[in-house]
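Sharing a chain and its predicted structure for anyone who wants a worked example. Both blocks are below, sequence first, tokens second.
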Amino acid sequence: MKFMVIGADGQLGTDLLKVIPMEEVLPLTAADLDITDRNKVFELVYKHKPEMIVNTAGYSRVDEAESDAEGAFAVNVEGARNLAQAAREIGAGLVHISTDYVFSGKKNSPYQESDRPEPLSVYARSKLAGEEAVAGTLNRSFIIRTSGLFGVAGCLGKGGGNFIDSVIAKGKMGRPFSVVDDQFFSPTYTMDLARKISQLSRTEKFGLFHVVNHGACSWYELAVKTFELIGLTINFSPSRFAELNAATAAKRPSYSVLDNAHLRAVGLDDMRPWPEALSAYLLEKGVAAQ
């Protein structure tokens, strides 16, 4: 199967290149392809004729999107639509990555694919509109919502790091810091997500999927587990989500835990619990306690 991976140098794209055989994949970075350039999208898709396009590109600067709605919608909606239209023209499939932020957080149990989205921010609205653009254009699509990604490459759209890297760095500096303890989500290792994308995209089970590591935690609990696994005793304090949410431009859900209901229904939900995934990530990074 021939894959075209968009955003191949990003956090998820890097791991996709590790799990998809080299001879099956054409990696494209942002320098290779701006997905908002419709003509370029069609040119490359027609030239290479992939069987499956995996779109990991996206505008992910949540707070900046509040003052740059045009930029967020250009990438997250029009870019996604361009890829879906090009895929439709050659009979290819498309994997499109979305987010837990499409939900409001008003629910107190894990969100399933059947739950109604209620985005709180420009970023979240753009991601939901991107889902709708893909689903409305291409039947052969996998729309994958995920959450709290961490991977070795780090997120290019957020400066090349992730929360875990950041909290380890803060801990080693020895200065006081705090982490939110009442915002809950589903931490997800990009290597596990990449493996599931590779597996799912080789099926005909198209549709909307939640794909996260099992379980839920707060950012504070994730930090505590991280320090436990790397063998550091760090003193840091919990902070309140309401204080953080009041101080940022974009509003975020206080609860965005996802349930892999559709994966489970098709017999493909073998995602491991997030603490196991975190341990594997830290081992891959070379920072886990021996």
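Comments welcome. The first helix runs from residue 11 to 19.
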